[in-house]
Design a protein that fits this description.
With 418 residues, the chain is α+β, with helices and mostly antiparallel strands. Helix 3 packs antiparallel against helix 4, helix 9 crosses helix 10 and helix 10 runs parallel beside helix 11. It has three domains: 150 residues, ATP-grasp fold, B domain (D-amino Acid Aminotransferase, Chain A, domain 1, 2-Layer Sandwich); 87 residues, ATP-grasp fold, A domain (Dna Ligase, domain 1, 2-Layer Sandwich), CATH 3.30.1490.20; 150 residues, Succinyl-CoA synthetase domains (Rossmann fold). It is built from twelve helices and 18 strands. It starts with a helix and ends in a 7-residue tail after the last strand. It catalyses: GTP + succinate + CoA = succinyl-CoA + GDP + phosphate. This is succinate--CoA ligase (GDP-forming). InterPro entries: ATP-grasp, ATP-grasp_succ-CoA_synth-type, ATP_grasp_subdomain_1, SUCC_ACL_C, Succ_CoA_ligase-like_bsu, Succinyl-CoA_synth-like. Its cofactor is Mg(2+).
Length: 418
C-alpha cells in the first residue's frame, strides 16, 4: 500500500505500544502496514469478520470452475464479482498465463462466472506485486456485487501517534468502545441518520473481532454505504500478533504458505526474518537474545544465495552479547568455508571479548568502528574483487533482508556518496 502522511505517522508509532487502542477514520486515507508472517487470503479475513457479526458481502469460495458456477447460481444476486485469491495486490490489472486479463471480474450471468473461473484456476496470475512468473491461483471467491454510494476508511490498531488529518479515538482496553465513542466515529466518517447507528454497531463489532483474534490491526478499506441503506465492510486487512499463536490455533491454521518464499520460511524456523531484493552485499543485523545457532543459520542462508558477494555484520545495542555473535561468526566462517569478504562492526555487551575472539580466530575478517565505516569497507572489499575480475563490472546494488526480534539478518544498501 502506498505510503502517505498517514503512513509516516504509522512508521513513527511502530516504536511504542500502550494498553490502549486507537480507532482511526478518514474519508480518504492510506496506511503503512507492518510485515506479518501470518498471511490470510481475502475470503479468510471476510470469514473472520462474518463470524463476529460484521456486515460483509455474501460470498462463497470455489476450487473448481463447476463449484464457482454453482456458487454464482446459489447467490442469486443481481450482479456477481469473481475474485482470484492470491496474497499479492493489483489483482484487477493482473494477467493470467491462460490469456485472461484481470483477476477481478463483474458479471450478471452465472454461466460467465464458470467460464472465467476456468481461465483462472490452475493458472498463474502476474501482477505488479508478484514474482515475474506470477502466482498460481488455487481458489476463487464468488461474491455478491454491491453498489457503493460512498466510501470511507476505518482502522483499529495499537495506539500510536497520528497525522492531524486523521480522526482518532483512544479506547480503554478494559472498558471497550462506548456507544458515544462509536457514534462519534460514525459521524466523523460522514454517516448520518439510521446509517450512523449502523456504522457505530459495525465499529463495535470490529473492535470485538480485534480483541478476539489478538490482532495488531484491523483495516477496512472501504467501509462503505450502499444505495439500499446498508453499511458494509467491502475489503479488510487483518494483522495478527505472532506471539498469540499458542491461543489462536484456528486462525494460524489458515496461514497460506503457498506463496511464501522458501528462504523466508527456512529463516522463520530459526526466528529470523529475511527479505531479499536485487543486490550483492548482504547484511546481518542484531536482535536482542540472539543465539549462536541463529548466527550460524543466518550465514548459512546468506551464503547460499549466489548473488551475495560480500557480507556486512552490524551488531549494536547494550543488551546484545557480542561474544555470542563473534562465536557464531567464527563457527560459520570455518564450517561453511566462507568465500566472500566479511566486514564486522560490533557494539554492545562483551564487545571487547568479541573483538578478541574475532582477532584471534585468524580468519580474514575486516573490523569496522561504526555503520558508515562498515558500509564503506564492505563496498570497497566488493569493488576490489570485481576490479580484479573485470574493470567494466558496475558497482554493487542494494538488497535488503529486514530484521524482527528476537534476531534477524539483512542485506544493506550502498550509502550515498560511496
Amino acid at each position: 500500500m502506498a505510503a502517505s502522511m498517514a503512513s509516516q505517522a504509522a512508521a513513527r508509532g511502530l516504536r511504542t505500544a500502550t494498553s490502549k487502542h486507537a480507532l482511526l477514520d478518514k474519508l480518504k486515507c492510506t496506511w503503512l502496514s507492518p510485515r506479518r508472517w501470518l498471511n490470510l487470503q481475502e475470503y479468510q479475513s471476510k470469514k473472520l469478520m462474518q463470524e463476529s457479526g460484521v456486515a460483509v458481502q455474501r460470498f462463497y469460495v470455489a476450487d473448481t470452475a463447476s463449484e464457482a458456477l454453482e456458487a454464482a447460481k446459489r447467490l442469486n444476486a443481481k450482479e456477481i464479482v469473481l475474485k482470484a485469491q492470491i496474497l499479492a495486490g493489483g489483482r484487477g490489472k493482473g494477467v493470467f498465463d491462460s490469456g485472461l486479463k484481470g483477476g477481478v471480474h463483474l458479471t450478471k450471468d452465472p454461466a460467465v462466472v464458470g467460464e472465467l473461473a476456468n481461465k483462472m484456476l490452475g493458472f498463474n496470475l502476474t501482477t505488479k506485486q508478484t514474482p515475474k512468473d506470477g502466482v498460481k491461483v488455487k481458489t476463487v471467491m464468488v461474491a455478491e456485487a454491491l453498489d457503493i454510494t460512498r466510501e470511507t476508511y476505518f482502522a483499529i490498531l495499537m495506539d500510536r501517534s497520528c497525522n492531524e488529518l486523521i480522526f482518532k479515538e483512544a479506547i480503554d482496553i478494559f472498558e471497550g468502545v462506548r456507544d458515544d465513542q462509536a457514534l462519534c466515529m460514525a459521524a466523523n466518517l460522514g454517516f448520518k441518520g439510521p446509517l450512523q447507528r449502523q456504522a457505530a454497531d459495525q465499529i463495535k463489532r470490529l473492535y470485538d473481532l480485534f480483541l478476539k483474534v489478538d490482532a495488531t490491526q484491523v483495516e477496512v478499506n472501504p467501509l462503505g454505504e450502499t444505495p439500499e441503506g446498508q453499511v458494509v465492510c467491502f475489503d479488510a486487512k487483518i494483522n495478527f500478533d505472532d506471539n498469540a499463536e499458542f491461543r489462536q490455533k484456528a486462525v494460524f491454521a489458515m496461514d497460506d504458505m503457498t506463496e511464501s518464499d522458501p528462504t523466508e520460511m527456512e529463516a522463520a524456523k530459526w526466528d529470523l526474518k529475511y527479505i531479499g531484493l536485487d543486490g550483492n552485499i548482504a547484511c546481518f543485523v542484531n536482535g536482542a537474545g540472539v543465539k549462536e545457532r541463529q548466527v550460524y543459520e543466518a550465514f548459512k542462508l546468506l551464503t547460499a544465495d549466489p548473488k551475495v558477494e560480500a557480507i556486512l555484520v552490524n551488531i549494536f545495542g547494550g543488551i546484545v552479547n557480542c561474544a555470542i555473535i563473534a562465536n557464531g561468526i567464527t563457527k560459520a566462517c570455518r564450517e561453511l568455508e566462507l568465500k566472500v569478504p566479511l566486514v564486522v562492526r560490533l557494539e554492545g555487551t562483551n564487545v571487547n571479548e568479541a573483538k578478541r575472539i574475532l582477532t584471534e580466530s585468524g580468519l580474514p575478517i575486516t573490523a569496522a568502528e561504526n555503520l558508515d565505516d562498515a558500509a564503506r569497507k564492505a563496498v570497497a572489499c566488493h569493488q576490489e574483487i570485481e576490479n580484479s575480475q573485470c574493470n567494466s563490472v558496475p558497482p554493487p546494488t542494494p538488497t535488503f533482508i529486514l530484521r524482527s526480534a528476537p534476531s534477524a539478518f539483512s542485506y544493506t544498501c550502498r550509502p550515498p556518496g560511496l
